[in-house]
Amino acid sequence: MIFDIVYISGEVIQFSRHSWYVMSIYFLFSVFVVLQTAMDSQEVAFAKEVISLSDSEYGFLVSIAGAGILIGSLINVLCARKFTLSFIMGIGSIMVSVGYLMFAFSNHFVMASLGVFTLAFSLAFANTGFYTFYQNNIPVNVMGRVGSLYGFIEALLVIITTSVFAVIAHFISIQFTVVLGAIVMLILTCSLLLFSLSPSKTEYYQTDLVEAKEVVL
Fold it and tell me: Rounded distance, CA 94 to CA 185, Å?
């Protein structure tokens, strides 16, 4: 079993070196997901202690997030072909960060609702763009192994980042933690947008004719 793990890891590392641009996008989006998870771990405490929402108001806030995802997904289905894949992923990710920033700096229910709706609405576009990019550019014969290995690393990063956020919230403040996370996320997603909109990398975002790829490792 150990030899199998080493063999799989070697294949994934070799593919990552060969397809550094694809894996750079993968890494940036994975860190984006990690930050989302860490931020969400502070959401309830932030809503109750900083914004002073009641239980019913927080429940309504969660419903607004669900509505944002639903509406975003519907518009994404209707308008996906009108935008490039790189635009959907890049702008969607940045708008998620903007939503978190709005939530982080909110001091009343209306502002928090706008932030939550914005991030949930935009998340539908960001996820669609990334997963389409992933399926188009990761060869089918290594897709599972790439997802497994990097998924394991992402899970470790989630644990570490969530723990760090909890420590910062305990020793400084919850609001500082959420604001810091939102700012870091915005910087990260700006980098993701610049990478994805690079004129020399447009071939990675072609969606008209996508064939299953295979590589010999």
Answer: 8
